[in-house]
């Protein structure tokens, strides 16, 4: 059993979906949690109630992780309130669903700031705090199947996730000797509020039955959270700069 008692974890974009599942899973393993949200305070408060019921310390912090000032304030708060930070789960994402031909410079920059630059700046700002972790600190970014395959109306987000995976490898190269592991979890198609709005969502979810290599069981947000838990734990100390795919084997074959 993974025991994260005494650890402190920040999960960005954790008011719902995969982010919320990751926060709850880390709390179940014993970690104290900083929930980050940008717009959904009521949803974040509901997640906080679940974590409090587990007997963990929890804080709910509004911050736009695409903005450096907000990240600095967030990390300052964590240091003041908790005195340590051992785990960062960079889950917040944006970009919307649109064709490649309709991507604007504003959309491109906004997507990259939230989906890629946020991870880089979180690590830059929090590095000194992470280096104080008694064990190896863990930074985990959330990617998606669109990083490795073309998905209709998903080019903006998918391209940013591919960049995220590359930047994570380069961060691992620089931070490994400083006691910090950087890895990625690439999630397959998971039913969330966000994916339900994907163009052709019904067709893609129906197609899972033909692509799955795990029988009738498909990936759920809790499965992604379990992978995050592993990478956040000492069991993954020797896993560095990797992308762990959780997709029922869908990307293994045509």
From TrEMBL:
Residues 7-193 form the Ketoreductase domain. SUPFAM superfamilies: NAD(P)-binding Rossmann-fold domains. Pfam families: adh_short_C2. The keyword Oxidoreductase applies. Keywords: Oxidoreductase. Its EC number is 1.3.1.104. Transmembrane segments: none annotated. GO terms for molecular function: enoyl-[acyl-carrier-protein] reductase (NADPH) activity. Belongs to the short-chain dehydrogenases/reductases (SDR) family. This is Enoyl-[acyl-carrier-protein] reductase [NADPH] FabL.
């Amino acid at each position: 059993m993974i025991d994260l008692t005494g650890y402190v974890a920040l999960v960005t974009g954790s008011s719902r979906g995969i982010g919320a599942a990751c926060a709850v899973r880390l709390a179940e393993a014993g970690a104290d949690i900083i929930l980050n949200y940008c717009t959904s305070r009521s949803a974040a408060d509901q997640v906080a109630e679940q974590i409090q019921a587990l007997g963990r310390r929890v804080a709910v912090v509004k911050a736009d992780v695409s903005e450096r000032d907000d990240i600095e304030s967030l990390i300052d708060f964590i240091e003041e309130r908790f005195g340590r930070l051992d785990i960062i789960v960079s889950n917040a994402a944006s970009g919307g669903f649109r064709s490649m031909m309709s991507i604007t410079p504003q959309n491109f920059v906004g997507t990259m700031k939230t989906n890629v630059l946020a991870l880089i700046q979180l690590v830059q700002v929090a590095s000194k705090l992470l280096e104080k972790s008694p064990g190896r600190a863990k930074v985990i970014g959330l990617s998606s199947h669109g990083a490795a395959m073309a998905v209709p109306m998903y080019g903006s987000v998918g391209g940013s996730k591919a960049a995220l995976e590359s930047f994570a490898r380069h961060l691992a190269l620089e931070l490994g000797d400083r006691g910090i592991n950087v890895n990625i979890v690439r999630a397959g198609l998971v039913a969330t509020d966000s994916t339900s709005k994907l163009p052709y969502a019904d067709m893609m979810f129906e197609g899972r039955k033909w692509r799955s290599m795990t029988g009738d069981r498909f990936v759920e947000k809790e499965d992604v959270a379990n992978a995050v838990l592993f990478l956040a734990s000492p069991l993954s100390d020797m896993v560095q700069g990797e992308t762990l795919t959780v997709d029922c084997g869908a990307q293994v074959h045509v």
